[in-house]
Amino acid sequence: MVRNDIRISSREPLAQDFKIISYEQKAPIPIDRDKWLRLWSPGGAYFNNNHGFSSDYQPYGEWVNGKEIRVFREPSVARPCLEATVEGLCEMVDELGLKLDVLDYDIEASVQPMIDASTEYGVLDGEQLSRRLFAESYRDTNKGGKQHADVLLTSKPLRLGDENWGETRFNTGAMIMSLPQGRQGSYDFIGNVAKHEAAHLLGFQEHHARVGNVIGYAEPEDCLTNWQCSTRDICERDEDALLAFWLGIEQKTGQQYLKR
Ligand SMILES: [Zn+2]
Ligand SMILES: [Zn+2]
After folding, report:
1. Which residues lie closer than 8 Å to 116 by C-beta, 6 or more apart?
2. The whole model's pTM is what?
């Protein structure tokens, strides 16, 4: 009996499990702070999964090994948009105290073919692009590359839906900002979106309102991780989730990512 109990309770659910719960149930089961942190701390478990394109390719999340985020823009995206993006990104990285370098690559000829190959009828397939970036030789240490995440600013609308300003995945280390001409003057808002997307890039693949209440946290008026991107303030609950996620990565990799 006792043994059984231990076995069952020792199975730590992953963040993904929680996502399914919060997605499909109207009223998610209320959980407390400890449970919340445990849901995110096995973030390092991403490194166990060999989900790459081919079984011999790198496992998901490999980009964190390079501790680097590279930011690029299409020539059709104005330079200040990139600066606003870098600002939002750095704000998120710094607030968490992560030791990740954000590097401004501006315009690089090598990026355009990947964007173009992922574009059909003028619409960018962000998932396809994210897979291309994941597999690029620039990340492959065997080909003289270095692991990193990529942030691309495009003037194309996203296949995900043209109302979306961003599309981001931690697993492939890819963040795409969709900035057609009409959006390129809203630097402040671009910064908000960039910081919101940075939270996704750094492992918080959720939106604030989609998660049920966690006992022990006050409900904020607004939160960075709400899809509206109307604030740059992240709530304590979601920041704790991100910190727990990176602690999990540290445990998994034996590397230090968080400044202490
Ligand atoms: Zn929140
Ligand atoms: Zn989002």
Report:
1. none
2. 0.86
